[in-house]
Write a structure and sequence with these properties.
The protein has helices at about 5-10, 40-45, 105-110, 145-155; strands at about 15-20, 25-30, 35-40, 50-60, 65-80, 85-90, 100, 110-115, 120, 130-135. By secondary structure, the protein is α+β, with helices and mostly antiparallel strands.
Length: about 180
Amino acid sequence: MSGRQTVEASSDVFIGILTVQTHDTHALIDPGSTLSYVTPFVAMEFGMEPDQLHEPFLVSTPVGESITAARVYRGCVVMVRSRDTMTDLIELGMVDFDVIMGMDWLYSCFSKLDCRTRSMRLEFPNDPIVEWKGDNVVPKCRFISYLKATKMIKKGYELPRIPPDSEIDIGIDVMPGT
């Protein structure tokens, strides 16, 4: 099982789609992460400039890599079931997820996680409860985000299992008189 599949199969984290700055992202909800992160491939679509961190630091990713974090996107809008929330996202050169939502965001959203059902409840004071359910299915192959795949194709990379754009000519032979 790959590092990503191990993470996704874990009972204390879960995955799903969250809208960040109007872009649907493949998100890892990880209460074991102190901070929240975004991949540069998604962040470049935000239309905003990141701030440099005063002190860059090393991040140990869920798939066992250590990556230097040096930039942060402040005040990013994360939409959960039509409810806007805000968070700072630290840029992290990862490929397995578009965003990792950590305790900083979970705490600010008054969230309660149910890892058995892979669901989250946002219980903002004096507001209706917002419920969000993550995915229960673990993909059987390596995943790259749509945004990353699009950028790679534009740069001329050929991705495995994705046929190149081509004209399709289909012919159906029929017998005369039928």
